[in-house]
Amino acid sequence: MTSPAPHEGGAMVTALPPSRTASRATAPSPLPEAAVRPPGVRHLGPNWYACVMGTAVVATAGVALPHRLPGLRTACTAVWALALVMLAVLLAARAAHWLRHRDQARAHLLDPAVAPFYGCLSMALLAVGAGAPAVGADWLGSGAALALDAVLFTLGTAIGLTAAVVVPYLMVVRHRITADQASPVWLLPVVAPMVSAAAGPALVPHLPAGQAQQTLLYACCAMFGLSLLATLVMLPVIFARLVTAGPLPTALTPTLFLVLGPLGQSTTAAGKFADAAPGVLPAPLDRGFLVFAVLYGVPVLGFALLWLALAAAMVLRARRHGMGFAMTWWAFTFPVGTCVTGAEGLARHTGLAAYDWLANGLFAALVAACAVALTHTLRGLLNGSLLAAPR
User: Fold this and answer.
1) Less CB within 10 Å around the terminal CB: N or C of the chain?
2) Under DSSP, is residue 211 helix (H, G, I), strand (E, B) or coil?
3) Which neighbouring-strand residues pair with 281?
4) 157 Cβ contact partners less than 8 Å away, ≥ 6 residues apart
5) Helix spans in 246-330 (H)
6) What is the pLDDT of residues 23-71, one digit of tens each?
7) Residue 113 burial (CB < 10 Å; 0-12/13-18/19+)?
8) Where are the alpha helices (DSSP H) in the chain?
9) Minimal CA–CA distance to 200: which of 224, 226, 220, 225?
């Protein structure tokens, strides 16, 4: 058996257990109190919100599939409820972390490998909120689901916009980063506003007609542009690091899938704009959003599939080189889910069956990835390894 060990780039990796060469006759030295104390929340980082994101996107992606399977909606409702519970537990645990371990929380902010994960808090709130009207209404009722979505959207958007400024600021003025440390993790704080851009249009019909609806829709468009341009700034740096410094460390290799996030989420957002614009914006702007959704989404999703193939090949290589489970495996979930919802939008707006089948295929991969990541995470929680101090 292997035992979890040090963090590599902020991710839990596996290492061989300590050698058992000591004589049985030698009495073991007493362990310090901290060594026998069960792991708490001191080492619970913001990367754990990725579990919520990856679980919630299974529900929102599954309920919008063009081919509905019997019982799928009921399953999606149960998965969304699980994501809601996970979010509540994590918010409480992270609040305890900040109250009891402020030194560690500050260290996370000043660690260039951990600070970008603060974008995950925003995306976890937004992912659960987006699923409330879509599937949570079956359990909570339409009124409560809409209220929950509005609250989580507001909080998630405020946190996401803050992270999109604060984390890059810290990277420039406080973190000491070299070129070979560039990582797809850097995308996490700047992609959070894109999730807001995709989630906001669902709230537009519930606002008063006129200025209120138009303001929210245009605000979502502005966050779309903010996130897209910031992503275009960072992607060349990340790719340059790959081709000049070689593959990422094995524990970080799954983070290559994070590049799919802004690609799939921007395609999804463009489709949501096209759905919300009629009746809200005057002609021809309303029809213009439909044209934009297709002309933007088709080539961007095409590039996403290219990157998916490249990232999958790199993961297979890392697996052959001994890649074990790490929390970075959750990168296989939410980014792929955004590609599912992007393909679903293109299927609606183009009428092409090819996008229907693409959405179905990607969803099957998403469910498998989420099941594997969730199983390993639960195992690590039960044996305490994922919350233990890095060695």
Assistant:
1) N
2) helix
3) 278
4) 122, 126, 193, 196, 200, 223
5) 260-276, 285-320
6) 333 334 343 433 334 467 888 899 999 999 999 999 999 999 987 788 8
7) buried
8) 33-36, 49-63, 72-100, 102-109, 119-131, 137-140, 142-173, 187-199, 211-245, 260-276, 285-320, 334-350, 353-382
9) 220
d(CA 154, CA 275): 21
Instruction: Write down the residue that tokens 């939410």 correspond to.
Output: 334
Rg from Cα positions in the chain: 21
**Three-state SS for 17?**
coil
C-alpha 113/C-alpha 170 separation (Å) is 12
Residues found in the chain: 391
Q: What is the Cα–Cα distance from 64 to 71, expressed in whole angstroms?
A: 14
Q: Give Cβ neighbours of residue 160 (< 8 Å, ≥ 6 apart).
A: 119, 122, 123, 126, 189, 192, 193, 195, 196
Tokens found for residue 14: 């596996």
Q: How far apart are CA 160 and CA 123, in angstroms?
A: 7
Determine the Cα–Cα distance for residues 207 and 199; give it in Å rounded to an integer: 14
C-beta separation of 72 from 63 below 8 A:
yes
User: Under 8 Å CB-to-CB from 247, ≥6 apart: which residues?
Assistant: 253, 314, 317, 318
Spatial neighbors of 221 by CB under 8 A, at least 6 apart, are: 197, 273
d(CA 45, CA 343): 32
Decide: 140 and 148 in contact? Cβ < 8 Å: yes
Q: Which residue has the tokens 């021809």?
A: 284
Six-digit token pair at 195?
A: 């999730």
Rounded-to-10 torsion of CA 291, 293, 296, 298 = -100
Other CB atoms within 10 A of residue 208 CB:
7
Backbone torsions φ then ψ of 257, nearest 5 degrees: -70, -15
pTM to 2 decimal places: 0.88
